[in-house]
Amino acid sequence: MKFASTRLIAADIKAMVSFYELVTGRQAEWLAPVFAEIVTPAATLAIGSAKTVALFKEGSAEPAANRTALLEFMVEDVDAEFERLKDKASWVHEPKMLPWGNKSAQLRDPEGSIVSLFTPVTDAAKARFGSR
User: Fold this and answer.
1) What are the tens digits of pLDDT across the range 37-55?
2) Cα pseudo-dihedral 94, 41, 114, 124, rounded to 10
3) What is the 3-state composition of the chain as percent helix, strand, coil, each rounded to the nearest 5?
4) Please, are residues 128 and 84 in contact by the beta-carbon 8 Å criterion?
């Protein structure tokens, strides 16, 4: 089995795609007017319009309802990313050290999901991500 992507269901797909293009610095590939993907070296973020839910099962997913998952992006310098994005997003918290060795800042996407930007700082954290 290969983990292929994480998909978000969006009420406003254009706003969501624009937000994630800004955060990742990558251009989305629109595979259909209701579906786009942002491919990064480690993972793919898929974004589907709420209209796509009916293709699977009506009501099986809803936009702006995530209260459990965080999307995490490892970045070279979380402080620099915070400075770049600080006036362009709603922030949960500014960069701070976490007990497992990452420095992290969290923001919300246009529909409320938490996006975590982090940099491994301690030797143990760097070793987990192969960045010594």
Assistant:
1) 999 999 999 999 999 998 8
2) -60
3) 25, 35, 40
4) no
CATH of 69-132, one of 3.90.550.10, 3.40.1190.20, 3.10.180.10, 3.40.1280.10: 3.10.180.10
Nearest to 46 by CA among 17, 70, 74, 72: 17
132 residue type, one letter? R
Strand arrangement of the beta sheet that strand 70-74 belongs to: 70-74, 114-120, 102-108, 90-97
74-93 per-position pLDDT tens digit: 999 999 999 999 999 999 99
φ, ψ of residue 121 to 5 degrees: the values are -115, -50
Domain ranges of the chain: 1-49, 69-132
Domain spanning 1-49, CATH class: alpha beta
Whole-number Å distance between alpha carbons of 88 and 120: 24
| 34: DSSP letter | T
Angle (CA) 98 104 107, round 5°: 130
